[in-house]
Structure formats: C-alpha cells, structure tokens
Write a structure and sequence with these properties.
CATH topology: Rossmann fold
Number of helices: 8
Order of helices and strands: EHEHHEEHEHEHHH
Strand order of the largest sheet: 4-3-2-1-5-6
CATH architecture: 3-Layer(aba) Sandwich
Helix content: 25-40%
Number of domains: 1
Number of strands: 6
Strand content: 15-25%
Structural class: alpha/beta
Largest sheet: 6 strands, parallel
C-alpha cells in the first residue's frame, strides 16, 4: 500500500450499538451514525489515510463511497480484523489487499480483540481519532491511545449516541460534537481539513505540504 506523505492518519472507531450485547453501553442513533460516517468519509477520503477495525454495517459503506469518489479504497483505507470473526467478515473484506489479519488468541474474544487493537494502534501515526456510536470497544480503544502517550486529537461525536456520547461527557469535549448535525462541516473544522484541499486517487500522488494541495475555485 502507498504511504501517506505529510499528514498523520485518522483513526476511526465506530459501530452501531446492539442492546442485546453484553458490551452495550447506551443507545445509539443509527441514522446519525450513518450520517456521521458518511460525513467523515466525504471529508477525508483521498486526503487522509483512514485506519479502523471494521464493522459489518459500515465496511461496505466505506468501499462504496470510495468507489463513488474515484479514490483507491485499498490505498487510503487500512482495515484490521481479528481472525476470530473470520466467518462473519463482509464480502468486501476478501476483495482488497488492505486488510491486516491478526491471529486470534484461541477462542477468547476479549484477548483476540486486545491483540488486534494493540497492533492496529501501534503501527500507524495518528493525528486524530474519531469515535462514532459504538459500544465498549470505543472506550477500550480510547484508553489504549491514551496509554500510548501519543499526541492524538480525540473527537467523540456525541450526537451519534452510544459509547461516543459517554466518552464525550467523560472528556468534557467540544459542545460542537453534540450540537452540530452537519457532519461534513463538523469534520472539516474538527480535523482542520480545508474544503478546497484536492483529493488524490492514491496517497503517492499527494504533495507533501497542505499548501500544495489547495485548489482555490475561480470566480466566473
């Protein structure tokens, strides 16, 4: 895979809360979760590398949006998966070479996820971590980033509910993450990505400095 030049990657921790799961922390807003993920993809794809741990309801969405934007999904997005859940992988997982498969720890769910997360969070330099909806895994991933000592901007999108709302309250994060429902505007501001920044099909085509990536629209 190509290496993103000049910018850190964005870590995405997202999921749709399931009230029947034992790691459920609170109700999520499925429409807001979908809208927030779509907004994040619109702002970042072709501009920043995206790294995350996958979710059956969201992985196909990311592939579809990347295709619609004519950016190389396999180059811009890195997906980490524990082989413990191999039988549950979406069809898209097998179609691309951007998946990092991590061996399971026997049949132990928590240890397998912890092993995957340690590798996922330890192999990339992140400039920001975005938390959308989700359950206990969001809190686990936040705590692992904090424990690493890395300087990462935390963006818990509270309006999506679930663990993201709990994390937002815990951090006393920006009220914008509760009130702003225009997720494209929210992520442009929170991630400091200029709306005029060009998209590139693959990271290797992206200039090193942000100034070189800006395209100012001409007035007619």
């Amino acid at each position: 895979m190509g290496q993103l030049i000049g910018s850190g990657a964005i870590f995405l921790s997202a999921g749709v809360p399931d009230p029947g799961a034992n790691h459920f922390l609170g109700e999520g807003d499925s429409a807001a979760i979908s809208a927030a993920v779509s907004g994040l993809l619109y702002v970042t794809l072709g501009r920043r590398r995206l790294v995350w741990g996958g979710h059956p309801a969201i992985t196909p969405m990311i592939w579809s949006v990347a295709e619609a934007m004519n950016v190389d999904y396999g180059e811009w997005v890195t997906l980490y998966q524990t082989l413990l859940f191999e039988d549950e992988f979406p069809e898209e997982t097998a179609r691309f070479d951007n998946v990092v498969f991590v061996e399971a720890v026997g049949t132990d769910r928590e240890q397998s996820l912890e092993k995957m997360r340690k590798r996922m969070l330890g192999e990339t330099r992140f400039e920001a971590a975005v938390f959308i909806g989700g359950m206990a895994g969001i809190m686990n991933e936040y705590e692992m980033i904090q424990a690493s000592g890395a300087s990462v901007k935390m963006i818990p999108v509270a309006s999506t509910g679930g663990a993201a709302a709990i994390l937002h309250q815990q951090l006393g994060a920006d009220p914008m993450l509760v009130d702003e429902l225009d997720y494209v505007a929210l992520f442009h501001k929170a991630l400091a990505i200029d709306p005029n920044e060009r998209r590139y099909r693959v990271p290797s085509e992206q200039p090193e400095t942000q100034a070189e990536r800006i395209s100012i629209p001409t007035r007619k």
